[in-house]
Amino acid sequence: MANAVPGSAGYEEEAGELAQRYERLQFEQVHHDVLHLLPAVPANVVDIGAGSGRDAAALARRGYRVVAVEPTDALRKEGERLHAGLSIRWVDDSLPALRILRAEGGRHDLILLSAVWMHLDEAERAEGMAALAALLAPGGIAILSLRHGPVPAGRRMFEVSADETIALGRDHGLVQCHCARRDDAQGRADVHWSVVALQRPRVAPPR
Fold it and tell me: Could you tell me the residue range of the domain that residue 64 belongs to?
């Protein structure tokens, strides 16, 4: 059966194996370079493309109010099972529209998109950035990690640069507050990452 979310192609079939792989890595290990950007506790946090819930669980343990967004049924169910004892609200929603989150009308202090953004094509990235900007509270930060390297078989990925992502955020009123290169946490020599953080200013810039 075709996957309803093009960017999640290949994940449903490998959910169990992927969940094990994700859970072997620690949140602090993967996101060491952006820990200083985390908001004060408590704060509203959304993990988009939450996968097995590794990052959502770590954030919940730190005391944040966490929403985990995962469109792949098998991965979402793995996350709910693995982290059943934590206060995480799981939502079946997806980029680029994030219709359910946007319909709720909430604003969030942190939006995490770990290994997600490169699954969107150019038009989807434009729509997705508009959705992220609408969901960020004043002062809120979106952290995006962009994968660079060969595309695994059966996956849908695009080469996306940090510069493009920063410019797209600027088009929607977001300003860069971090940009760095990150080695692959799984040790793959042919894979590296760009990490971009975009912030909604507390006061709108003058026109």
Answer: 6-199
**Is 206 a domain residue?**
no
Rounded to an integer, what distance in angstroms lies between the CA atom of residue 142 and that of residue 176? 10
Q: Strands across the sheet with 175-183, in order?
A: 88-91, 65-69, 44-48, 108-113, 136-148, 192-199, 175-183
Q: What pLDDT digit, counting tens, does each position of 156-169 carry?
A: 999 999 999 999 99
Cα separation of 64 and 44, whole Å? 6
185 found inside a domain: yes
Domain assignment present for residue 117? The answer is: yes
- pLDDT for position 3: 43
CATH of the domain at 151: 3.40.50.150
Q: Residues 82-136: pLDDT tens digits?
A: 999 999 999 999 999 999 999 999 999 999 999 999 999 999 999 999 999 999 9
Number of domains observed in the structure of the chain = 1
Closest-CA residue to 142 (of 104, 103, 101): 101
- Backbone dihedral angles phi then psi of residue 5, each to the nearest 5 degrees: -110, 105
